[in-house]
Design a protein that fits this description.
heterodimer; A: about 350 residues; alpha/beta; Rossmann fold; 7-stranded mixed β-sheet; 3-stranded antiparallel β-sheet; 12 helices; 12 strands; B: about 625 residues; globular; transmembrane helix (chain A); GPI-anchor transamidase (chain A); membrane (chain A)
C-alpha cells in the first residue's frame, strides 16, 4: 500500500498543472461597445463559477457599462436579452479599469515586469505549473487588436510576449481565446510551446454580434462568446468534457464567421484536455493516511539537476517544426569582386579620361 | 523647353486662346448648366447613410404613449394663450415646474427698423420660457434641445402640448446622459435669436434681452417642432438656415431612418418620396426638389427656428407636422415615439455631429449630392470669367497700331489703371447708397409721399437701384481716359476678376446663391462690350441684373411649389421679399442684402458702365 501511495504521489508530481490563472481583457470603450464588456464578464462569470478565485483572475475592462449614464438598468450588464442573465452580479472584482487597460499594462501583466508598488491583485503571479486562460475581445483587424481607440497590439508583439512567458517559466499550458473580427490573425505568429488558440473568425471575416436588447438599445453579446457561454453553463467542476467539444461551439450556421483554432504548438491531444483544465480550478487533493518519504533517490536526482537561465529547453527540441526555407544569396565577397571586375573592364575600355565625368 | 517658356509655343497657345475664346466660353457655360441639371439624376447621387458610429444600427423600442394627453395639453395651452393675449408665461412656468424641470424665463425687446407687414409687428417685446431636465447621473456638460414656437392665434398649440408631454415622459427615464432643454419661444425667430444670444453670451444684432439664469452645457443638437393640427398625415423636415447654412447630414439621416421605422410619410420641400427615382418623372421630381432647396438656400433666410442655431455650431432641424387630409393618418403617439427615438439616439452621441457632410444638396430624402459633386458646375462658370480675363490681358499687352507713337502708348498704359478707379468708386458709392438710404430716409419719404414705412423703404431701394442705371451718362465727365479702347478693356479686366473672386467666395459659403448669381451675371460679364447695339443689350442686361434675377427666382419658387402666381402677385411678393431681406439683415445678421447691395450691384454697374463707354 505504501507503493500505491508512492505511485499516486509520483503521479501527483508528474501531472501537468497545479494552479489556474485567467486574464480576461476587454479592450474597447464607449456605450455602443457594450457587448465587449458583456463578453468578458460572461467568461469571468464562468471561470469564477468553476472555481478560479478572484485572486487568480486579472480582469481588465476598458469602460464601465454598468454605471454608464446611458444604461437604463444601472449597475447591471446583461448577456441575454429580456434581462435574463446579469453577468455583472454583485461580486465583480475589476483589476484594470478604464484607461489602465492599455497595451503596455497588458504586456506587463503577461511578462510580470510590473513596478514594485503594483498590488498583488493586479499581477499575474503564475509559475511553471500554472495553466493560464487568456481571453481577449474588442475590435480587431488583420494582425492587430485595437486598445481603447488610440493604440493597437500586433500579433507579433503578442507572440513575443508569450515567448517571454515561456522563457521565464510563467506557464505550463496556455489557452488563448480571442473574439474579434479577423481573430485568427492574432494567433498566426505564435511560436512558443504548449499554447492552444481559439478565434471567432478567420482572416477576412467579421465576427458578428448576437442580439440587440430593445430596452437597452445595444447589442448585448458577440455570437461566438454567446454560444461559448451557453456551452460553459453546462460545465460543472467535475465534468469531463474535453476541448474537442469546445472546438465545435458556434459552427458557421450559427456564427456566420468560421471559428478557427491552432493546436500544433500544444503537446497533448486536445481530446485529452479537459475544459476544467483551463476554465476551472480543480485542485488535485489526494487523501492518504500513510506517511510518504519524499527524499527518495529518484526525486533527489531530479532536484540536483541545475537549471540555469541559458540551459533552458530549446524550443526546437520540443516542437518539430518545419525548417524555414532560407533564400540563397551568393557569398558577400563574390559580389564585391564582381563589381571590382566590372569597374576595371569599364575603365580599360573607355580610358581613364572618362573618370573626370564621374568625379 | 517647356510649354509656357518657349516663345513660339506660347504665342501659338495664346492665339488659340484668343481665337477660340467665345466658343470655349459658350461650351463651358452649357457644360456648367448641364452638370447642374445632371446632379439630380439618380445614378449620379449617393445614398444616404449614417456616418456617426455612436448613433449606430440598433434601435430601441420606444415606449411613449401619451399622444392623447398631448392634444389635451395643447387645447389648454390655446385657452391660456387667448386669455393672456400672447405668451401665457405664468401658466407655462407652472406647467414645466409641475413636470419636474428647472424653469427660467428671459424677456427681450427689439424695435424693427421699419414695420414688418408680413408678421404685423414693429416694436417687439416678449418672453421666452425654458425648462431644463437635468440628466440624473451625468455631469452637466452637454445638452440637447427641443423647441416649440408660441405663435399667434391657434398655430403651434399642438407643438407646445407635445413638448410638455415629452418633457414629462423624459423626466421619468434614467438613461439621459445629457441635459435636455425645453424652450417655448415667443415671436419665433426674434425670440430664438434673443435666447441663443443670451445662452452663448454674444450680442450680434443689437437686441436687448435679460441674461439667462439657468444653463445646461454645450448644446449638441436641437429640434424645432411645428405642429398645428391634431391630425398629422405627414412630417416635413426643413433644413435651410441663416445665410444658407445647413445642418449636418447625419441629423437628416436620423430623421429619415425613424420615418422608415415608424412608417410615417415624410416629405422634403413638401414633396413625397417615391420608388422610381431613375425614371423620367422621377428625375423631374428630383430636379424640382433640388431647385426648391437651391432657391431656399440662396435666399439666406432661416426657414425655421432651427436656422439660427447653425451659426453656433449646433446642428438643428425643424420638423413640421402637416395635415393634408389624406386617408393615411399618423397618430400623435407615433409622432411622440419618433421624437423619443431620435432623442435616445442623440443621447448616445459622444462628440458633436461631424462625421457627415455639412455642404450638400438633397434631390430627395434618400439621396444626396455632396460638395465635391456640385462644385464643378460652379467651377465651369467661373472658368468663363478667367478665360475672358486672359483674353483681355492678351489684348491689352498686344502692341498697338503703328500710327500711334511710343509716347502715346506710355501715356495710355499709365492712365489705364487710374481710369478704372473712378468707375469703381462711383459704383461702390452707389452700392453703399443702396444699402443705407432706404432705411435712413424712410421718415422723409413718408412725409413727402403717401406711403407706409415699409413701402417707403422698398420703393427707395428700387429708386436707388434704377438711378444707378443713369450713372454712365452723368459721370463720364469725371472719368479720365474716356473714349480709349484701352480704357474699357482695363475696366472690364478688373471687373471680370472682381466678379470671379466675389462669386467664388459666395459659392464657397452659400453655393446656391453663388450659382444663381453666376448663371445670370457671367454671360453679362463675358459678353458686354461698348461696340454692341446699345438698346437691345441694355434690355438684356437689365433682365439679367440682380434685381430681375430675384424677381424670376420668386416666380420660379412659386411655380415649383405648384402655386403659380400672376405677374401682379409676383411683383407684390417681390417687394415683400426685398423688405424681408432688409429685415433679416437687421434682425438676425443675414448677409444676402449687404452682399447684393454693396458688392454684386456695384459689380453689375461696372459692366453697365462698360456698355455705355464712349
Amino acid at each position: 500500500s505504501i507503493g500505491l501511495a508512492m505511485n499516486s504521489a509520483e503521479q501527483f508530481f508528474n501531472s501537468g498543472h497545479t494552479n489556474n490563472w485567467a486574464i480576461l481583457a476587454c479592450t474597447s470603450r464607449f456605450w455602443f461597445n457594450y457587448r465587449h464588456v458583456a463578453n468578458t464578464l460572461s467568461v469571468y462569470r464562468s471561470v469564477k463559477r468553476l472555481g478560479i478565485p478572484d485572486s487568480q483572475i486579472v480582469l481588465m475592462l476598458a469602460d464601465d457599462m454598468a454605471c454608464n449614464h446611458r444604461n437604463p438598468k444601472p449597475a447591471t450588464v446583461f448577456s441575454h436579452k429580456n434581462m435574463e442573465l446579469n453577468v455583472y452580479g454583485d461580486d465583480v472584482e475589476v483589476d484594470y479599469r478604464g484607461y489602465e487597460v492599455s497595451v503596455e499594462n497588458f504586456l506587463r501583466v503577461l511578462t510580470g515586469r510590473l513596478p514594485p508598488s503594483t498590488p498583488r491583485s493586479k499581477r499575474l503571479l503564475s509559475d511553471d505549473r500554472s495553466n493560464i486562460l487568456i481571453y481577449l475581445t474588442g475590435h480587431g483587424g488583420n494582425g492587430f487588436l485595437k486598445f481603447q481607440d488610440f493604440e493597437e497590439i500586433s500579433n507579433i508583439e503578442l507572440a513575443d510576449a508569450f515567448e517571454q512567458m515561456w522563457q521565464k517559466r510563467r506557464y505550463n499550458e496556455l489557452l488563448f481565446i480571442i473574439d474579434t473580427c479577423q481573430g485568427a490573425s492574432m494567433y498566426e505568429r505564435l511560436y512558443s510551446p504548449n499554447i492552444m488558440a481559439l478565434a471567432s473568425s478567420q482572416i477576412g471575416e467579421d465576427s458578428l454580434s448576437h442580439q440587440p436588447d430593445l430596452a437597452i438599445g445595444v447589442h448585448l453579446m458577440d455570437r461566438y462568446t454567446f454560444y461559448m457561454l451557453e456551452f460553459l453553463e453546462d460545465i460543472h467542476p467535475a465534468s469531463k468534457t474535453n476541448m474537442n467539444d469546445l472546438f465545435k461551439v458556434c459552427p458557421k450556421s450559427q456564427c456566420v464567421s468560421t471559428p478557427g483554432r491552432r493546436t500544433d504548438l500544444f503537446q497533448r491531444d486536445p481530446g485529452s484536455v479537459l475544459i476544467t483544465d483551463f476554465f476551472g480550478s480543480v485542485r488535485k487533493v489526494e487523501i492518504t493516511v500513510e506517511t510518504i518519504n519524499l527524499t527518495d533517490s529518484e526525486s533527489g536526482e531530479l532536484q540536483n539537476e541545475s537549471r540555469s537561465y541559458v540551459d533552458q529547453l530549446p524550443v526546437s527540441e520540443i516542437i518539430h517544426q518545419k525548417p524555414k526555407q532560407k533564400d540563397w544569396h551568393p557569398p558577400d565577397g563574390f559580389i564585391l569582386g564582381l563589381w571590382t571586375l566590372i569597374l576595371l573592364v569599364f575603365f580599360k575600355t573607355y580610358g581613364m579620361k572618362h573618370l573626370k565625368h564621374i568625379l | 523647353m517647356g510649354l509656357l517658356s518657349d516663345p513660339t509655343r506660347r504665342r501659338a497657345l495664346i492665339s488659340l486662346l484668343t481665337r477660340l475664346n467665345t466658343p470655349i466660353c459658350a461650351v463651358c457655360y452649357m457644360a456648367g448648366v448641364a452638370w447642374f441639371m445632371g446632379l439630380a439624376f439618380e445614378p449620379f447621387t449617393l445614398r444616404m447613410h449614417m456616418s456617426e458610429n455612436a448613433m449606430g444600427s440598433t434601435m430601441v423600442e420606444e415606449r411613449f404613449q401619451a399622444g392623447e394627453r398631448a392634444l389635451v395639453t395643447a387645447k389648454e395651452f390655446g385657452v391660456q394663450k387667448n386669455k393672456a393675449g400672447g405668451m401665457p408665461v405664468d401658466w407655462l412656468v407652472k406647467a414645466m415646474q409641475d413636470r419636474g424641470l428647472e424653469v427660467f424665463t428671459q424677456s427681450f425687446s427689439r424695435t424693427l427698423p421699419f414695420p414688418d407687414e408680413n408678421k404685423e409687428r414693429f416694436m417687439v417685446k416678449g418672453t421666452n420660457v425654458y425648462g431644463i431636465l437635468r440628466a440624473p447621473r451625468a455631469p452637466r456638460t452637454e445638452a440637447l434641445m427641443l423647441t416649440a414656437p408660441c405663435s399667434q392665434g391657434n398655430d403651434n398649440n399642438q407643438a407646445v402640448g407635445m413638448l410638455l408631454v415629452l418633457a414629462q415622459y423624459f423626466r421619468s427615464q434614467v438613461y439621459w446622459a445629457k441635459d435636455i432643454i425645453f424652450l417655448v419661444n415667443e415671436h419665433d425667430l426674434i425670440g430664438m435669436q434673443a435666447w441663443l444670444e443670451g445662452y452663448h453670451h454674444t450680442n450680434i444684432t443689437g437686441m436687448e434681452w435679460s441674461p439667462l439664469q439657468g444653463r445646461a452645457g454645450a448644446i449638441q443638437a436641437a429640434l424645432s417642432l411645428e405642429l398645428s393640427s391634431d391630425v398629422v398625415t405627414s412630417l416635413d423636415i426643413v433644413l435651410e438656415g441663416l445665410n444658407g447654412q445647413l445642418p449636418n447630414l447625419d441629423l437628416v439621416n436620423l430623421f429619415y431612418a425613424f420615418c422608415q421605422k415608424f412608417d410615417v410619410l415624410c416629405t422634403f420641400q413638401g414633396k413625397l418620396q417615391r420608388n422610381d427615382w431613375d425614371s423620367p418623372s422621377g428625375y423631374s421630381h428630383a430636379v424640382q426638389t433640388m431647385m426648391l432647396m437651391v432657391l431656399k438656400q440662396a435666399s439666406g433666410h432661416s426657414w425655421g427656428d432651427h436656422g439660427l442655431f447653425l451659426r453656433y455650431q449646433v446642428e438643428a432641424v425643424t420638423i413640421k407636422g402637416i395635415n393634408s387630409y389624406r386617408q393615411y393618418k399618423t397618430t400623435t403617439t407615433t409622432v411622440g415615439r419618433l421624437l423619443e427615438g431620435m432623442y435616445r439616439k442623440l443621447n448616445n452621441l459622444l462628440e458633436r455631429l461631424h462625421q457627415s457632410f455639412f455642404f450638400y444638396l438633397l434631390p430627395s430624402l434618400s439621396h444626396f449630392v455632396s460638395i465635391s459633386y456640385y462644385m464643378p458646375a460652379f467651377g465651369l462658370l467661373a472658368a468663363i470669367l478667367l478665360l475672358r480675363a486672359l483674353n483681355l490681358w492678351v489684348e491689352l499687352s498686344a502692341p498697338p497700331a503703328t500710327e500711334d507713337g511710343v509716347a502715346n502708348v506710355e501715356q495710355q498704359s499709365s492712365s489705364g489703371v487710374l481710369s478704372v478707379v473712378t468707375p469703381l468708386v462711383i459704383s461702390h458709392l452707389t452700392g453703399v447708397a443702396l444699402y443705407t438710404l432706404p432705411v435712413h430716409f424712410q421718415e422723409m419719404a413718408v412725409e413727402h409721399f403717401p406711403v407706409s414705412e415699409t413701402e417707403a423703404v422698398v420703393l427707395t431701394a428700387i429708386a436707388v437701384y434704377t438711378a444707378g442705371l443713369a450713372l454712365p451718362h452723368n459721370t463720364h465727365r469725371f472719368v479720365s481716359g474716356e473714349g480709349t479702347e484701352q480704357g474699357w478693356r482695363v475696366l472690364k479686366l478688373v471687373a471680370v476678376l472682381y466678379l470671379a473672386v466675389l462669386l467664388g467666395c459666395t459659392a464657397l459659403l452659400n453655393f446656391s446663391l453663388g450659382f444663381i448669381l453666376a448663371l445670370t451675371l457671367v454671360p453679362v460679364a463675358a459678353g458686354v462690350t461698348p461696340h454692341m447695339p446699345k438698346f437691345p443689350t441694355a434690355c438684356v442686361m437689365v433682365v439679367l441684373s440682380p434685381a430681375c434675377t430675384l424677381l424670376f427666382s420668386v416666380f420660379a419658387f412659386h411655380e415649383l411649389q405648384e402655386t403659380p402666381l400672376s405677374f401682379q402677385d409676383t411683383w407684390l411678393l417681390f417687394l415683400s421679399v426685398i423688405s424681408q431681406g432688409i429685415l433679416d439683415h437687421a434682425l438676425y445678421g443675414a448677409l444676402v442684402f449687404p452682399l447684393l447691395a454693396m458688392l454684386v450691384y456695384p459689380c453689375w454697374l461696372l459692366f453697365w458702365n462698360i456698355l455705355f463707354w464712349k
